[in-house]
Specification:
Elements lengths: L2 E6 L6 H12 L5 E6 L5 E2 L5 E2 L14 E4 L5 H4 L3 H18 L4 E5 L2 H7 L7 E2 L6 H7 L4 E2 L5 E4 L2 E4 L4 H14 L1 H11 L24 H12 L7 H8 L3 H11 L4 H18 L4 H8 L4 H10 L3
Helix pairs in contact: 1-6, 6-7, 8-9, 11-12
């Protein structure tokens, strides 16, 4: 089933807020049909490129559509223009369909401010770029604004921190709508990592434990996921983040809720499962994943839940 994705185009649109998610959806090989709509047939983006051929705002959107509000430069002024006001009034008319989840809403970066201005965020858990959190709280006093989040969903309304997090959120939606295999294929094609909400179903360690903003932990995760089969003494893992092993252990428990060793073991189990699915033998799969023997792989399977 193909999902219609409608990108709202306003003057000053942040190019990556549009092109990042758009390219991600396109790589899902026909699962999404993209539309570009707005009050003007032509706009100039944040990087000076002019985009033309923009369709008018439709009266309604088909049920099951995904409506995307990208961010803009200088949102304080850009969302006060006549064009933004027209979009805001249009969103107000769509509000019943959005709140009944007939239409899903995806806000990238300051796009959440436009949704808030249109009355869509009351009582909704949401987030935005860290520099805009205060303005989001002011624009929607009844919203449940979350800080330090890459993206968050509530009642069919998705909000993200902005820029590259729009790609993270697009990958997550592909995972939801098309399945983990399609999402992982797209991520590999784009050479990006998944970062998922902690409340989502547990699919694999490659898709989990990335929904945080701690740079030291991300450095460690990047190193471990690049070479999970490598021998990793805890002191070497901590050296990737330039912190002590004890401090790294505390950070993992605090931000991920899992030990460093268990995280690495989950990565190795995922590698072993991939090799087994390719028809390799148990011993070959165990060694390729960094286990010392098939017995150690078996013990890890019993000890670490999937």
């Amino acid at each position: 089933m193909t999902t219609d994705v409608w990108f709202v185009m306003l003057p000053g649109l942040l190019a990556l807020d549009l092109t990042g998610p758009a390219e991600t959806f396109v790589l899902a090989k026909g699962a999404f049909r993209l539309h570009y709509i707005g009050p003007d047939a032509e706009i100039t983006t944040s990087i000076g490129i002019t985009m033309t051929g923009i369709a008018p705002l439709p009266e309604t959107l088909p049920e099951g559509s995904l409506l995307v509000l990208p961010g803009v430069t200088d949102s304080a002024n850009a969302f006060a223009t006549p064009q933004a006001t027209r979009v805001s009034h249009w969103l107000m008319r769509l509000q019943p369909e959005i709140h009944r989840q007939k239409i899903q809403l995806m806000c990238v970066c300051s796009g959440a401010l436009l949704a808030a201005k249109s009355g869509l965020m009351s009582g909704i858990h949401c987030t935005t770029h860290h520099n805009l959190i205060g303005r989001l709280k002011t624009a929607a006093p009844a919203a449940l604004v979350k800080e330090n989040r890459i993206f968050i969903e509530d009642q069919g309304i998705w909000t993200s921190a902005g820029i590259t997090s729009g790609i993270d959120l697009a990958l997550h939606l592909i995972n939801r709508l098309c399945g983990a295999e399609v999402a992982l294929t797209v991520a590999r094609e784009m050479v990006v990592w998944f970062r998922r909400s902690g409340d989502d179903p547990q699919l694999s360690p490659w898709l989990r434990y990335r929904n945080h903003m701690h740079p030291a932990i991300h450095r460690v995760q990047d190193a471990l996921t690049a070479e999970p089969q490598k021998a990793w003494p805890l002191v070497d893992i901590a050296a990737q983040a330039h912190i002590s092993p004890r401090h790294l252990t505390r950070l993992f428990q605090q931000h991920l809720g899992i030990s460093v060793r268990d995280y690495l073991e989950k990565l190795r189990l995922a590698v072993a499962e991939q090799w087994l699915l390719q028809g390799r033998g148990v011993e070959q799969a165990a060694m390729a994943a960094g286990f010392s023997s098939p017995r150690q792989l078996h013990r890890a399977r019993q000890r670490i839940p999937s």
